[in-house]
Write a structure and sequence with these properties.
The complex is a heterodimer of chains A (about 100) and B (about 300). With about 100 residues, chain A is α/β, with parallel strands linked by helices. Chain A has 4 helices and 6 strands; from the N terminus they run βαβαβαβββα. Chain A has a 5-stranded mixed beta sheet, with helices on both faces. Chain A is globular, with a radius of gyration of 12 Å. Chain B has about 300 residues and is of the alpha/beta class. Chain B has a 6-stranded mixed beta sheet with strand order 7-6-5-8-9-12, with helices on both faces. In chain B, strands 1-4 form a two-stranded antiparallel ribbon. In chain B, strands 2-3 form a two-stranded antiparallel ribbon. Chain B has 9 helices and 12 strands. Chain B is elongated and about 90 Å long. Classes of the chains: A alpha/beta (about 100), B alpha/beta (about 300). β4 (about 70-75) of chain A pairs antiparallel with β2 (about 40-50) of chain B, so a sheet runs across the interface.
């Protein structure tokens, strides 16, 4: 299950996390985000022990989106020790995301 | 040898898919990832509108509902150009059989069936396919097309390869020269599938590797099917008696008892294969060991299934 992140909880759940984190930046009106959303949820379940998987609605949480310069959605950022280490823009097959995440484990 | 391809043997490949692993440049919409990010087929993402850019791709419905200005971006998908390359030098007509069949083929028959299967698969996917044959130079280089007429033409050309017991003259191999030449002739990114025993006259295998690298450098995806009769060519599985070995390309004759040299021969064959495999790995070339004794289905099917699993 993916965490619902907000501007307020981002620092605590992502930056301070000891596990690698992937964050899906999305919006309700974005078609491709609805394709990526369930995939991210699945990854969240599969990697629930080893990684943190979160989703952040860019409409309601503009601060984080601005901080990371998110201009395209869906964008998925990969964090390790609070730093962005990888990025994936656009709808891509699950395997692409999984292999990027596995590289961080 | 039957002079015609048995169609029932290759029809099974109608139901398979082979998808290019890297981006390819095709000319119509298809299954494969294109290097271009266009505004056409698969809707992939929303990007914020930049002041001054064309309003053509703005998502106006979204603007109407939410007052947000976003541009739709699409992933372009395209079809594949596949070049099937067959080494038709004399050594490919080994083992010398009176009636090679798809079940007990020599190396050329194996390659012909594998190529026909591949062409069938590509035709089903509506991908374009072309055929190139070489020995000491390029002997045939067809266009890549996806039409039914072209497919029939390719099958006819493949059948021609089966017609000779061996080429009329002893055809030597120049893998490096032929592949360099081919690399210069293909302009768009393509899938290049090579069937060869990688046996040639050059002392220096580095030349062959540099030719393979040339293809990779031109951004083609390369699959090398290393065709061989593993029992006879690697394990030297002959009876314990003296044999006359004739080099099919130079005609040179050596008389010896295979059992005496078996151990050393196996070792050097193993080293050569390992080096080829490792260097292919280093260049990002798919190396597939194709033992003719397994039949072409026994080699192609596991390979395709393995590839499909990667997606």
């Amino acid at each position: 299950m993916a965490l619902q992140l907000t501007d307020a909880t981002f620092e605590e759940l992502v930056i301070k996390s000891e596990k690698p984190v992937i964050v899906d930046f999305w919006a309700v009106w974005c078609g491709p985000c609805r394709i990526v959303g369930p995939v991210v949820e699945e990854i969240g379940e599969e990697f629930s022990d080893t990684a943190v998987v979160g989703k952040l609605d860019v409409d309601h949480n503009p601060e984080v989106a601005r901080k990371y310069g998110i201009r395209n959605i869906p964008t998925i950022l990969f964090f390790k020790n609070g730093e962005v280490v990888d990025k994936q823009v656009g709808a891509v097959p699950k395997q692409v995301l999984v292999s990027k995440l596995e590289a961080l484990l | 040898m039957d002079n015609q391809i048995q169609h029932t043997k290759i029809e099974v490949f109608n139901s398979l898919e082979l998808i290019a692993r890297q981006a390819v440049e095709g000319f119509v919409t298809g299954l494969h990832k294109s290097p271009f990010h266009g505004f056409s087929v698969e809707f992939a993402e929303h990007r914020q509108y930049n002041a001054g850019e064309s309003t053509r791709f703005v998502d106006w419905k979204l603007y109407g509902k939410t007052d947000k200005l976003y541009v739709k971006r699409f992933e372009e998908e395209t079809n594949l150009r596949c070049h099937i390359v067959i080494d038709r030098s004399s050594s490919m007509y080994f083992p010398v059989l009176n009636h090679p069949t798809p079940e007990h083929p020599n190396k050329i028959l194996f390659s012909v069936y594998a190529a026909a299967a591949l062409a069938t698969l590509m035709k089903k996917q509506r991908d374009a396919v072309g055929l190139t044959c070489f020995s000491d130079q390029l002997e045939l280089h067809t266009q890549v097309r996806s039409s039914m007429v072209h497919y029939q033409y390719l099958l006819t050309e493949l059948e021609k390869l089966m017609k000779f017991e061996r080429p009329e003259t002893d055809a030597a191999t120049d893998i490096a020269g032929s592949l360099h030449h081919l690399a210069e002739m293909i302009h768009q990114r393509s899938l290049v599938v090579i069937f060869s025993d990688m046996m040639d006259n050059s002392e220096n295998q580095d030349l062959n590797f540099s030719a393979l690298q040339h293809l990779k450098h031109a951004k083609h995806e390369v699959i090398l099917f290393h065709v061989k009769d593993k029992n006879l060519e690697e394990n030297l599985d002959y009876e314990n008696r003296p044999y006359r070995f004739v080099d099919m390309e130079s005609g040179e004759v050596v008389k010896l008892n295979p059992v005496e040299i078996r151990e050393n021969f196996q070792k050097s064959a193993f080293n050569a294969r390992t080096e080829l495999e490792q260097r292919c790995g280093r260049y990002g070339i798919d190396y597939v060991e194709a033992d003719v004794n397994q039949g072409f289905e026994g080699v192609l099917l596991p390979y395709f299934f393995k590839r499909q699993k990667l997606y």
